[in-house]
What does this fold into?
Amino acid sequence: MTRNSPLVKRIAIVVGAVVLTAIVSMATTLGVSRSIEGNATAINIAGSLRMGAYELLARSAADPTEHHATTFMAGLDAYQQRMAHPGFTQAIPSGKDHPLAKQHQIMESLWHGELSPALVANAPNSTRVTEDLITVTERYVAEVDKLVSMLEHRTEARVDLLHLIQIISLVLSILIIFGLYLDIKKRVLRPLRKLMDIAVAVGEQDFSHKANLKGSDELSQLGIAFDQMTSELALSYNELKEDAMAKTRELEKSHAALELLHSSSRSLFANHDLCNGAIPMLQDLEQLLGIGPIRLYLHDKNSSEPVEAITTSTKDRPFYCKDHHCNACLVTPEVFDELPNEGNDGRRLLLPIRTPGQLLGTLEVWYPASKGLSQTARRLLETLSDQLATAIFLERQITEEQQLTLAEERTVIARELHDSLAQSLSYLKMQVARLRRLDIKGEHEKVHNDILEELSTGLNSAYRQLRELLTTFRLKLDTPDLATALRQTAEEFSERLGSEVKLDYRLPPQTLSPNEEIHTLQIVREGLANAVKHSEASEILVQVLFESPRVSVRILDNGKGLPNGDQPSQHYGLIIMQDRARTLGGKVNVLNRDTGGVEVALSFVPKSRHLITSEAAGG
It folds into this structure.
């Protein structure tokens, strides 16, 4: 309770008013009662004075004896003593102007001036009462009656005043109590009822009730505080309700996203293909979280910059796409322009795709700047990056193990070829050399020499192909990726040519399967071998390009070109290249260039859509 409490002040004022009314009432009652104290005695004495006057009149007419005179005088003295009785004189106001004092003065003047001398004069000398004495007596008694009446009226007036004071006090008390009741009802009971209603409504989560109390007392201040509290509670409750609904929606999204990640992770690990396994899942995740586009960049040792592996939304087919029948990531330009990219009020989140000690790639997520990215969505995307890291790491391990296994198998095959087929070819070459030494004459000489020439050519070509094959097998053992093998091949043939063999290699990571890499490398080596051996070129360029969805391999030289301007027939190297191209599902063309020299062109569509890159063992 505050020191300056309006409610306490009002109660104090009302109580003070009641107490003051009671005090005033008691004081005035006491004063009035004191003022009429002795009036009854005075009225009795005045009444006895009337009777005493007639008694004196009667005694004055008795026998004039000495005893009678003594008795009369004693009665007269007693009468005068009654007139001077304190109970009578005190009832007469002391003010000379008071009507009662004037009447008392008239009565005493009439007594002392006329009646008393007349009685004294008449008493000892006469046995009868004169008319004058009777008249004076009657006049005196009339004045005494008037005095008695005035005393009675005065007493009745004082009693009436006392009654009026009591009535006024009672009315004032009732009015004060009624006013207090109305004030308590208005300023205490009603506000308390409103506050109780507000408390009950707040308990029922209804914050619309308001006290709307005006004033400066405690309950008004409490009502204002309640109104402010309910407003703040309504705001807080609505905010909490909205937060709860947002959290519920967020949890529902999170639950749906987790289910999506769970179902998609199985396909991601089963397909061994990011494009097939990740894009549908990422697109569903974009729609669920209201984000996108999402791009995945993989790190490759052959590229200084991260290589884009997949995207969920693009208006142009990505350069690495190997399936032009698939339109999963293609959207219209209008849709693409509405996506939250860098120039369209978008923000970017970069999440590393990594295993302990190794960064595999980066997940780029665009989201609207106006909406932001919730913590739940961020955690889901971090979970997604962990899943992708696990899938990529496991697939890299599988790929590396496959390549190592393949390299080991090729090493075994190379050793077997060297120990068996190479020796057999060497033995056949020795036998052909022996046949050449035979001096065969006659009609079969020409046929014999042609057969020997064909055998020698075939054996030399087979032996050369075997050496190339053994070289390739041994080269592949130490270089588990096509780019490194081609660089080493270019260096090898640069030494043979005496000038640099340039290499332009632009394939996305792991575009080719290990089997496709082998055949591509063999075709390049065969083309380089022919260029170094036959073209007399000073410059050779090897291009390995990805022209989606095809892989194009070209060996360009500035040599003398083909003799007849067309690809040679029955050339063992070309036949082998064509066989390898058919294995790849493509074709090799050997043509003269317009600027001079020969172009060996290989074009095929990779059968694998495998996009997970692997690094060299030493990388």
